């Protein structure tokens, strides 16, 4: 079982997509799917109530600042936009347009 504490993850898309707005949104969707998969697997081993992606405080590293508004508008119910920070940054791999880092504090549901 995973003890009480902190979940920290860094996620990025696996595919190599070309640059442009439609491609950054595709990378964004793929990255969110990766985060949801990691959280689902963590929830299987967790003694607490399930963690939801919307509980993550997120930091978005985005190569092109022009993409920030569209990504922010696309967050919807999957991540909490109020807990998101957006940074324009060079990302390690040239083919990536974004990376998402998230952290959540989660306690066991059976703890008084």
Structural features, described:
The model has no long low-confidence stretch (mean pLDDT 76). The protein is built from two helices and four strands. Strand 2, helix 2 and strand 3 form a beta-alpha-beta unit. It is of the alpha+beta class. The protein has one domain: RutC-like (60s Ribosomal Protein L30, Chain: A).
CATH class: Alpha Beta
What would you call the shape?
elongated
**SSE topology string:** EHEHEE
Major β-sheet profile = 4 strands, mixed
By CATH, the superfamily comes out as RutC-like
CATH architecture: 2-Layer Sandwich
Q: Whole-number average pLDDT?
A: 76
Count of domain modules: 1
CATH topology: 60s Ribosomal Protein L30, Chain: A
The helix fraction, in percent, is 25-40%
Q: How many β-strands, per DSSP?
A: 4
How many H/I helical runs?
2
Strand content: 15-25%
Report the span from N to C terminus: 18 Å
Cα gyration radius (Å): 15 Å
The neighbouring-strand order within the major sheet is 1-4-2-3
The stretches of 5 or more residues where confidence is low (pLDDT under 50) are: none
Question: By helix and strand content, what is the structural category?
Answer: alpha+beta
Summarize the structure.
The protein is α+β, with helices and mostly antiparallel strands and 112 residues long. The protein is built from 2 helices and 4 strands. Strands 1-4-2-3 form a 4-stranded mixed sheet.
What is the element layout, followed by pairings?
Layout: E1 5-11, H1 21-44, E2 57-62, H2 68-74, E3 84-88, E4 98-106
Parallel strand pairs: 2-3
Antiparallel strand pairs: 1-4, 2-4
